Amino acid sequence: MNALLAASGAAVVGAAAGPALTALARSTLRRGRLGRGAVALASGCAGAAAGLVVLRWSGTPWLLPGELAFAAAGVALGAVDLAELRLPNVLVLPAAGAVALLLGGGALVAGVPSAAVGVLVGALALALVYLVLAIAARGRLGMGDVKLGLVAGAATGALGLHVWLLALVAGVLVNGLVALVVLLLRRRRALGASIPFGPSIVLGALLAVLIG
Fold first, then answer.
1. Where does residue 85 rank: exposed (0-12), middle (13-18), buried (19+ CB within 10 A)?
2. Which of 14, 45, 165, 167 is the most buried (most CB within 10 A)?
3. Direct distance between the N- and C-terminal alpha carbons of the chain, in angstroms, rounded to an integer
4. Cβ neighbours of residue 158 closer than 8 Å, sequence gap 6 or more
5. What is the largest CA-CA distance in the chain?
């Protein structure tokens, strides 16, 4: 019951943070725009993510600040990537630092040094994997996606290798499903480079955090 109450409270706070996250995303846009629909979507995503994270990890309080920061950053970064197909350094780098600091510091305070190591190794390893994919894909993945790997890798590396691997696989699968839907619906935008990979990275990592 206490976990449900905490999760409900987190969902309300997350939803209330939706407009602020959208405003943060909007401040980094070069040419795109985020309307009322984006605010509503951001509020729903932030609320759902916050509630589910608290519900899943309420028994491990040192994890919550970092994982909630990851969820919030993911909403803002996903909004920008959907609007302009880019992940600005002004958002993604501070997000990587905040998530790594909160999770790594929390792990050390809680006496779980292996998790702190996992934060660092997970962040660097996932960024390296995306760098290799970016080189192989010849432009279909950008350096913003590589840097986002630092954020997602830190958020999942804290939970162990199995969660990190799940995030990697889930991100690729989600992006593949999105590409398939776009192909089947025959959208005007070309398949490939026009499909942002950032939201899939975030969703894949969030699913791994919740399942793990």
1. middle
2. 167
3. 21
4. 63, 66, 103, 104, 107, 115, 116, 118, 119, 122
5. 53
